[in-house]
């Protein structure tokens, strides 16, 4: 059950905290959506590879959005805009007590999806006549087509839970743990603030959706 942070933002309360709540509302949405996308992978039995890729992609996109809220880009745009977003990221990390170095601070994750066209160009430039190219793979490391020269567009290793996209690999369980860590921090902070504002404790869910235990195959 998600925390309903603000159905409608009224005029009461500290101005800075009201602004912070809006940022936390979107951060919560992205973290919860990532958690549920991951759970859809965990809940499913054998599924077709396209469905698996859609779910993995959704998980990574939501995780990347949460990452960008907390660790915004420090270049691009006017000096005022850069300063504003850098300040916002530092403020959110501060109130949530998120360490500067965190697994969700993953520039590769964000850059891959924000610049997918350029990453695709780079991959295609490396294709030679005799290069095998894995378009949609599952456990491709077991395939006879895989070699040192193979280029991987997409692959999912069901034993390690590692998802590779455009030659870049992401450890999904590790990222899910990172999502959980920050999600719990957000829930805890909001619960404390809502209680301080007079909300009844029993109406405030304070447990971020827990990840299902997905073991790695030996």
Strand content: 5-15%
> What would you report as the Rg, rounded to the nearest angstrom?
20 Å
Q: List the total number of helices.
A: 6
Number of strands: 6
Helix vs. strand class: alpha/beta
For the largest beta sheet, what order do the strands appear in spatially?
2-4-5-6
Query: How many domains, as an integer?
Result: 1
The poorly predicted ranges are 1-11, 142-146, 212-218
SSE order: HHHHHEEEEEEH
Summarize the biggest pleated sheet.
Answer: 4 strands, mixed
Name the shape in a single word.
Answer: flat
Helix content: 40-55%
Mean pLDDT reading: 80
C-alpha end-to-end distance: 34 Å
Record keyword descriptors for this entry.
single chain; 6 strands; alpha/beta; 6 helices; four-stranded mixed β-sheet; flat; 218 residues; 51% helix
Protein described:
The chain is of the alpha/beta class. Helices cover 51% and strands 8% of the residues. Strands 2-4-5-6 form a four-stranded mixed sheet. α1 packs antiparallel against α6. The radius of gyration is 20 Å and the shape is flat.
Compact description:
By secondary structure, the chain is of the alpha/beta class. Helix content is 51%, strand content 8%. The longest helix has 29 residues, at 15-43.
């Amino acid at each position: 059950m998600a925390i309903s942070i603000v159905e409608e933002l009224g005029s009461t309360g500290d101005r800075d905290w009201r602004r912070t709540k809006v940022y936390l509302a979107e951060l919560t949405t992205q973290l919860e959506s990532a958690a549920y996308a991951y759970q859809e992978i965990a809940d499913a039995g054998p599924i077709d590879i396209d469905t698996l890729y859609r779910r993995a992609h959704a998980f990574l996109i939501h995780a990347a959005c949460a990452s960008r809220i907390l660790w915004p880009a420090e270049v691009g745009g006017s000096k005022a805009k850069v300063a504003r977003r850098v300040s916002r990221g530092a403020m959110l990390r501060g109130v949530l007590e998120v360490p500067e170095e965190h697994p969700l601070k993953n520039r590769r994750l964000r850059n891959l999806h924000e610049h997918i066209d350029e990453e695709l160009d780079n991959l295609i430039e490396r294709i030679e006549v005799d290069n095998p190219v894995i378009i949609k793979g599952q456990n491709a490391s077991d395939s006879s087509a895989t070699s040192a020269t193979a280029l991987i567009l997409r692959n999912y290793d069901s034993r390690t839970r590692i998802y590779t996209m455009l030659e870049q690999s992401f450890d999904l369980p590790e990222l899910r743990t990172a999502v959980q860590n920050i999600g719990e921090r957000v829930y805890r902070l909001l619960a404390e603030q809502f209680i301080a504002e007079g909300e009844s404790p029993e109406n405030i869910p304070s447990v971020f959706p827990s990840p299902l235990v997905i073991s790695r195959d030996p």
